[in-house]
Amino acid sequence: MKSKAYNPYEDPALHATQPTRTWIMEDRKPFNDAIHHIDVVQGVSTPKRLDDYPGLIRNPFRLYVIVSVGSMVVLLAYSFIQNLWAALNGG
């Protein structure tokens, strides 16, 4: 009667029942209207990552972010160069 000791880490039945995602706030379901209103006001139900948005929105939003950040970098560089040029020329 040599049986292997029970090890819960090797039990496939226990691991099969575990959730694959642990995002508790994303799966939150309010049980009354007041809690639903608080969740809407606090932004619990809004998408937090770009992958949560539909595919038609992802690419234009990604392009908008790239253009916005790029234009900000260009304007900051232009302002820095303009101020540096004015300081060097005594203006």
Commentary on this structure:
This protein has 91 residues and is an all-alpha fold. Helices cover 54% and strands 0% of the residues. The protein has three helices and no strands. It is elongated, with a radius of gyration of 27 Å. It starts with 11 loop residues before the first helix and ends with a helix. The model has no long low-confidence stretch (mean pLDDT 79).
The gist of it:
This protein is mostly helical and 91 residues long. It has helices at 12-16, 33-42, 55-88.
Per-chain topology:
Elements: H1 12-16, H2 33-42, H3 55-88
Keywords, separated by commas or semicolons:
3 helices, 91 residues, mainly alpha, 0% strand, 54% helix
**Averaging pLDDT over every residue, what do you get?**
79
Proportion in β-strands: under 5%
SSE arrangement, N to C: HHH
Q: What is the C-alpha radius of gyration, as a whole number of Å?
A: 27 Å
Overall spatial form: elongated
Number of helices: 3
Class of secondary structure makeup: mainly alpha
The helix content is: 40-55%
Contiguous uncertain segments of 5+ residues: none
Biggest sheet: strands, sense, closure?
none
Q: Give the tally of β-strands.
A: 0
Distance between the termini: 95 Å
